[in-house]
User: What shape does this take?
Amino acid sequence: MHKQEQEAEKLVEAFLSGDEDALCKLVNLYKPMICAIKSRIYLKNLDDEDWYQEAMISCHEAIMAHDKNKGTFGTIYKNYFYNRIMTLLRFEMAVRRRIDRNMVPWTEDIDDLVQEPDNLYCTINEVGSKVCQKLTNVEMNAILVMLGKASVDDVLRDCNITLRQLNSARARARRKLYEILFST
Assistant: This one.
């Protein structure tokens, strides 16, 4: 048995014997696993304390379900924690709550957000000129494909490129557009 699993088994036994600190120690023992799942899944309304709380709840559930004959504690804990996080993600992504994700909090300074049309027109022109300056011909054609204004086959033929090169151009174009739009 692996050293971490041996320590986990001791902590599980300690918790079942009444040592409440053993639960915190177990969660800290599996902190790399928690961080790995946290880095792969973004939950809008969960801060670090919420992630820790979910890890504690999952750990408690895993302890109660743990059977030495059915596998290691680490495997059971990982499954419980991952499933709990996926349940939260499904809840967040539910169709009936999509409107909540897209809402912007109401502010009293709403007039500051509204711009005059002339200023907006100048900004659009400035962005448009920056786009034309920064993007290559292939990247411009990739944008046209993304917008549905050109077909993939036409762009591949006209630019004399492969599909892989077109996909690379799409990625570069997205990155450059993001930089242009959010740097101004």
Q: What stands out?
A: Residues 3-98 form a domain with the Rna Polymerase Sigma Factor; Chain: A fold (CATH 1.10.1740). The chain has two domains: 3-98, 117-183.
